[in-house]
Amino acid sequence: MVIQDSDLTNIERLRWQCRRGMLELDVLLEAFLEQRYVALSPRLKRHFVQLLEFPDPVIHAWCVQGQRPEDEEFAELISSIRATSVA
Amino acid sequence: MALEKQRFDTLILGAGGAGLNAALQLANANLKVAVVSKVFPTRSHTVAAQGGVNAALANVLPDNWHWHMFDTVKGSDYLGDQDAIEYMCREAIPTVYELEHNGVPFSRLTNGKIYQRAFGGQSQNFGGEQAARTCAAADRTGHAILHTLYQQNIRAKTHFYDEYFAVDLIKDKEGIVVGALVLNIATGEPLLIESTTTLLATGGCGQVFRTTSNAHINTGDGMAMVLRAGLPLMDMEFFQFHPTGIAGKGMLITEGVRGEGGYLINKDGDRFMEKYAPNAKDLASRDVVSRSIVTEVRDGHGCGPEADHVMLKVNHLSEDVIAKRLPGIRESSRIFAGVDPVKDPIPVFPTAHYVMGGIPTDRFGRVMPTSEDNGEHLPGLYAAGECACASVHGANRLGGNSLLDILVFGRLAGHNIIDYVKDNGTHRPLDEAAVEQAMGRLARWENKGEGLSVSQLRNEFRKTMEDHAGVFRVEEMMAEGVEKVRQIREKLSDVRLTDHSSTFNINRTEALELENMIDVGLSIAVSALHRKESRGAHSRPDYPKRNDAEWMKHTLYWQENDKLDYKGVRVQPLTVESFPPKERVY
């Protein structure tokens, strides 16, 4: 998908994209968006927008179960998501 | 500006397994189909179903649809309609084969046939040896099905309205549903979709409880639309709770943890299940464990600063055992509970998982508007999936039967709609007053000024539902709960949005969802208060026994005056002998 700069700044749209089919992802992604997204570099923001396009089981495997993404580009973003405080 | 209108043969609200399987039948028959979904279709809650689909294919062990039917009737605690259950268990087989032909990558045996795994509640020969009935696609069955159905729908040219929120059903002057008002979440523009047939497939409503395993989208939207259209919901008191959800968060901690030797403790470190179930202890049935946890908390033995949960202890097991036999638990606990179960116990509380009740339908998915069992149904209105009640789960649902329910009844509703549209393909004129009423529901949220926030009232509501209509159900508590929820409903008019923008106004969408949740929550609280027996998932310590003489009947709830009525269980199957009620022992 082609990502526009406006995709990175439309926080309300991203908030709705964080609504998923799995509660685990709802909670983790929404907390990440709330707490950490704004301070990310444009590169990592772009990765986050890309990540939201992946199927739920893939995001779950990477962000909840800790499986390493095949695309190393995502690794930095995913460790930041996994370090988000939701407890 | 004039309200934009679009016309379709069929409007489907919801894009989970039920909605997409119905849409595919219709699009393949060249009907003009619109599917409205508030999130992108493959992010529907069906994606979270990992277990699989039951069908008596007999690929691994001997099996027969009649045995599957027996297990389902027994599992329902004899509240399921036996004609619908027979129909579902027979139709399970062609439904699974159709999915296979459509490309669902089911796991395979070495002989190439679909692999089937054994699950609790499955038997051969009417209660004999364990059966193996569940077809799965690794541990991603829901995702595999959803993905396949979505792709097939794209091929068949189903029209998708992604990120549109359904506001209300629209009727004509005779009360027949002729479409719905929907809202484009991205632009904030309303859209009127006219249809000769409408299928509600909006899923469950677990979000009405504070602690739930359901995704945030499960707010009972279709159920609430039905209530506001003056139609009833059935058997809403039957809600399945899983005993161990992460406290305050809801994510499931699998029963396997206790199977591997994990056990529950209270704030004093006492292993309290020894007191409530001296033999089975922590492996007692779900409802017993759930009730024991809530009793401990109510009696002041809860853990944490609010004393509102108990602990699941696994740190006596080795790190190796946890890593090998309970993969995933360590990561989930670490992220969502902030504890490493290798070192510390996991805070847990019962989590709302699945609603057995819903929009009453016959076995063809047609919505039934009355308590008369005379075959009357509302022309052109259908429901399927977790939002519907066919009723195949009765008072409790078996593992592997929820994906089955949505797929079978989505498919059959599709077939029935095709037949209906052949003879009733003309659009009926809608009632402008109904459109105005639905638009008024949107306009109400334009009110500005000081008031309660959506999240304040939502938190109060969900906590009230958990405390007064959750696992622990005694008369006084529940009566108090009904009053509290009624007061919360009154407070809705004091809620004001903090955001009045048009585009991606999530605050407004959440306000509409909150209205839906409160409408549905009240149906649960009122229905539960009046069922004075214990059956399946509805457990009343003040009426601890199942009472077939008085209560082998379905509850029907209407929103107007919180009216209740009842209708008998359909105990006569289609072609076989009825299974008479027996004590349910496993």
Account of the 3D structure:
The complex is a heterodimer of chains A (87) and B (586). Chain A is mostly helical and 87 residues long. Chain A has helices at residues 5-9, 11-17, 23-35, 42-51, 56-63, 75-82. In chain B, a hairpin with a 5-residue loop joins strand 8 and strand 9. Chain B has 16 helices and 19 strands. In chain B, the strands form 5 sheets. In chain B, strands 1, 2, 6, 7, 8, 9 and 16 form a 7-stranded mixed β-sheet that branches. Chain B is globular and about 65 Å long. In chain B, helix 3 packs across helix 11 (401-423). Chains A and B meet through helix 2 and helix 3 of A and helix 4 and helix 10 of B.
What's the number of helices of chain B? 16
Q: What best-fitting shape of chain A do the alpha-carbon axes yield?
A: globular
CATH superfamily of the largest domain in chain B: FAD/NAD(P)-binding domain
Q: Name the poorly predicted regions of chain A.
A: none
Straight-line distance between termini of chain A: 33 Å
Largest interface: A-B, 25 and 42 residues
Number of strands of chain A: 0
How many individual β-strands of chain B?
19
CATH class division of chain A: Mainly Alpha
- What is the SS-derived class of chain A? mainly alpha
Please give the oligomerization state of what you see.
Answer: heterodimer
- What is the 3D shape of chain B? globular
Listing every helix as H and every strand as E from the N terminus to the C terminus, the arrangement of chain A reads: HHHHHH
According to CATH, what is the topology of the largest domain in chain B?
FAD/NAD(P)-binding domain
Q: What's the rounded overall pLDDT mean of chain A?
A: 93
Instruction: Write out the CATH superfamily name of chain A.
Output: Flavinator of succinate dehydrogenase
Radius of gyration of chain B: 23 Å
Total domains of chain B: 2
CATH class of the largest domain in chain B: Alpha Beta
Task: State the helical fraction of chain B.
Answer: 25-40%
